[in-house]
Design brief:
Length: 86
């Protein structure tokens, strides 16, 4: 293994930042596992980027679910109002 663990972590941080993701939420325990397994920094960065993408996708799905529920509530209220006008 060439380079220190700190250099490895810095390289992963840089790659995550360069991809447009948030390097502040990197799980350094996972990065350390990659380091001791002898994985290249690109593999560790790719893993962190994938995890962030999955979290974003999950959050987006939750937001869509909430918005659909709100739309249904608003449609139900609108229907009650139009029925009350008749």
């Amino acid at each position: 293994m060439s380079g220190s663990r700190r250099d490895y972590e810095n390289d992963v941080y840089y790659e995550v930042w360069r991809s447009g993701k948030n390097p502040d939420v990197i799980n350094y325990d996972r990065v350390e596992d990659h380091y001791y397994n002898g994985d290249p920094t690109e593999a560790a960065a790719r893993d962190e980027i994938r995890r962030q993408n999955a979290k974003l996708e999950e959050r987006d799905q939750d937001e869509r679910r909430v918005m659909r529920a709100r739309i249904r509530e608003m449609e139900a209220m609108e229907q009650k109002l139009t029925e009350g006008e008749k």
